[in-house]
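ok here's ABC transporter ATP-binding protein:
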Amino acid sequence: MLIEIKNLNKSFKNRVVLDNVNFDIPEKGIILLKGKNGTGKSTLLTIISKFIKKDSGLITYSDDRFFEKSGFLLDVNILIDDLSFEDNMQLIGSILKMEKVEVEKKIAFYQNLFSLPRKEFYKNYSLGMKRKAELTRTLINNPQYIFWDEPFNSLDQESVKIILDQILDKNKLYFIITHEDYLDEIAHEILILD
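and the structure:
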């Protein structure tokens, strides 16, 4: 197992969001996390990413380089409004200490795949274009473990098909929070948080 979660708890003020959550996440496959709104799915992912702290419980990562090999799409946007797609991706590449030539290849690949204007400011993108740029950010360093929170929100059917057909790799882990039932067909495992 890649991640073991035991007795995980998280509250915000007086509201319990995660109550004694227990499950394991394997090293590869398409794993869906589903549940009603407000059950703590996004909170769980932000805890796994260490963006926020848990109150109690244990999360064990079996890979010492887990964070280096992971890409996270959380419900928080981290791209910069006044930078272009190209400049945002170059910045992310430099933060991840990627070779400039490799970053340029990835920018060209995803810009073409998603039909994104390369030089236009991120703030001028439509919601769907912003989502594609965020997905590119999570994939630019070719991570082994991908964690996405509602990745297909604001995307048209053609873009979703491109992702399902050309990006998903059976040798990687995709941990996806979703309400989309059509993804059940490609899932290796479906976890329910209630």
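+1. The chain has two domains: 1-69+144-194, 82-143.
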